[in-house]
Every structure is written in C-alpha cells, then in structure tokens.
Amino acid sequence: MKMISLTEVLSRPTWNRRLINELLDDPDEIKYRSNGAVHQKSFSFDRVVEAEKKGKFKAKEEADLKHQQEIKERADEIKDSLLSAIAIDINALEVPKTGEIDEVFKACRKQMRSFDSMMRVVDMEAYRRVYSPHSDKGFITPDMELYRLISEQRKDLAFKAGRRFQLCYMNVSQSFGWSDLLAE
User: Fold this and answer.
1) How far apart, in Å, are the Cα atoms of 165 and each of 67, 86, 171?
2) pLDDT tens string 106-139
3) β-bridge mates for residue 32, sequence order
4) Element (H, E) at 71
5) Is the Cβ–Cβ distance between 82 and 119 less than 8 Å?
6) Is the distance from CB of 19 to CB of 43 less than 8 angstroms?
7) In terms of DSSP bridges, do strands 29-32 and 38-44 run parallel, antiparallel, or are they unpaired?
8) DSSP characters over 1-57
9) What stretches in the chain show pLDDT beneath 50?
10) What is the C-alpha end-to-end distance of the chain, expressed in Å?
11) 165: how many CB neighbours lie within 10 A of its CB?
12) Which of 42, 35, 55 is CA-nearest to residue 8?
C-alpha cells in the first residue's frame, strides 16, 4: 500500500489541516522517534485520492480557484492603474536642462505625482501574490521610462541613461555590486 506523509498531503493543492481532519481523520501510519515523539504521520494514497473526489473537497477546491481568480483580477487592475499613472506622469514631465544623470533622474522622479499617489493607495500585497517582482510583469516602476525620456531629451546624458535603462531592464540592483558600473 502506497503511503503519503502529512507534509506531502499539505503540499497538494487545496489541502489544509482542517480538511485533513474532516476528510481523512486519523493517519493510517505513525512513525515515532526514539524518544517517543511523533516523527511522521502518513495516509494511504488511495484514501487521499478518494477524499479528493468528495463534495466537500470539491467545494473547497472551487472556492480556492474563485479566490485566486479574484486576486488575479485585482492584480491586473492594479497593474493597469500603475502603468496608466506612469504614462500620465511621463507625458507631463519636464526633464531639467542641466545637471548630471543622478540629479536629473531625482528631479524627474519627484515629478511622478500620479504614480506616487497610486502607490500609496493600491493593494500591493494582492499584486505581489500574482506577479513576482522578478518577472517582466512584476517589474512596474517608472525608472525605465524616466531613463528613456532622459536619453531622448538630454543627448549629453543619453549613454548614461541608456546604461541605467539596461540595468533596470535586467533587474539588477546596486546591492549586487553593480554600483561601480554606474559611477562614471
């Protein structure tokens, strides 16, 4: 008889301790340590599969899917709102005519009022449940657009702005030791 541990059951979609207690009840096998403490609880794989066919499990599975879809929809709304705020700010932005790349970037960044206001009110926790900050969809920041705009409007800073744009695109931060590449 194939056995599956409690940890393995919990790692399967939909399962939680409450459902295990309700649908599986007592484990089929318990392994103990030499001091008498429980080491592992296991269930028959067939029992787990059979429980997953029950109405209560199916209802929980459907509720979980619905909840995940609601979070995804909310995250997409947040993404669209943030991208719109960036576009609004970029269109209204005035790039300073003087200054080095850091000064110009900071001055431009201070003008990102719509984006900053949006960041104060959006539910970033819901957004991060769906989009990883390490994916192209999860990397919502005005920095790339700012560097693009600086390179277009300040030809004397085009190379440095382009380099910063590339670093943003690669999602490389100064914490990885790239700050010396930026210092010129």
Assistant:
1) 36, 16, 10
2) 999 899 888 888 877 777 776 776 666 555 555 5
3) 38
4) helix 55-92
5) yes
6) no
7) antiparallel
8) --EEEHHHHHHSTT--HHHIIIII-S-SEEEE-TTS-EEEEEEEHHHHHHHTTSHHH
9) 172-184
10) 67
11) 18
12) 42
Three-state DSSP class for 173? coil
The label of the residue with tokens 């695109």 reads: 169
Kindly state the tokens that stand for 42.
């296991």
Distance CA 27, CA 14 (A): 18
User: Angle at Cα 171 formed by Cα 167 and Cα 174, nearest 5°?
Assistant: 65
Dist CA 42 CA 51 (whole Å): 15
The DSSP-derived string for 116-140 is: HHHHHHS-HHHHHHHS-TTSTTT--
Question: Taking a C-beta distance cutoff of 8 angstroms, is the pair 170, 182 a contact?
Answer: no
How confident is the model over 58-77, as pLDDT tens digits? Answer: 999 999 999 989 888 888 88
CA dihedral in degrees (57, 60, 65, 67; nearest 10)?
-170
13: its two tokens: 């979609």
Residue 66 corresponds to which tokens in the numbers above? 């619905």
Distance of CA 45 to the CA centre of its chain: 33
**How many of the other CB atoms lie within 10 Å of CB of 96?**
15
**CA angle in degrees (0–180, nearest 5) for 39-42-47:** 170
**Structural contact between residues 90 and 145, judged by C-beta atoms closer than 8 angstroms:** yes
